[in-house]
Amino acid sequence: MNLRNKKELAAKTFKVGKSRIVFVLERMDEIKEALTKEDIRTLHQEGAILIKDVKGRKVQVKKKKKRSVGNVRKKVNRRKQDYVIITRKLRRFAAELKNQGRLSGEEVKEIRKKIRNKDFKSKASLKAYIGELRK
């Protein structure tokens, strides 16, 4: 009788590869009668079905990778969203100052170039730059 199906069932039951399953030859009649996973489990407990140990380097415990500051990556989408939010805020503020007459068109153009180049990290840094322009 072909025991390939029984071996596959045992491999699924114990979550190991088929090559690790070994049937004891003296107990083949019992193994042939096994139909369910529960039957396979009881045969394993009784010693009719053996599971080989893992060979080679797979047994060694893998070194865990630590997440240090240099390995933490921000998501690209989040960075883009942050950029869009700060850019819109700064451009709106520059346009507001131009409408109030506190900035000329050329100054606004220069500020917009700096905004695009990410020279300002916040609205406060833009205000500080404008304060330096006024001096």
> Looking at CATH, which topology of the largest domain would you report?
Non-ribosomal Peptide Synthetase Peptidyl Carrier Protein, Chain A
Total number of strands: 2
Helix content: 55-70%
Structural class: mainly alpha
Please outline the helices and strands.
Blueprint: H1 4-14, E1 21-23, H2 28-33, H3 37-46, E2 49-51, H4 76-100, H5 105-116, H6 123-134
Antiparallel strand pairs: 1-2
Describe it.
The protein has 135 residues and is mainly alpha-helical. It has 2 domains: 4-53, 50s Ribosomal Protein L19e, Chain O, domain 1; 73-134, Non-ribosomal Peptide Synthetase Peptidyl Carrier Protein, Chain A (Orthogonal Bundle), CATH 1.10.1200. The chain is 56% helix and 4% strand. It contains 6 helices and 2 strands, in the order αβααβααα. Helix 4 (76-100) packs antiparallel against helix 5 (105-116). The longest helix has 25 residues, at 76-100.
Summed up, what is this model?
By secondary structure, the protein is mainly alpha-helical. It is built from six helices and two strands, in the order H-E-H-H-E-H-H-H.
Keywords:
single chain, 135 residues, mainly alpha, 50s Ribosomal Protein L19e, Chain O, domain 1, Non-ribosomal Peptide Synthetase Peptidyl Carrier Protein, Chain A, two-stranded antiparallel sheet, 6 helices
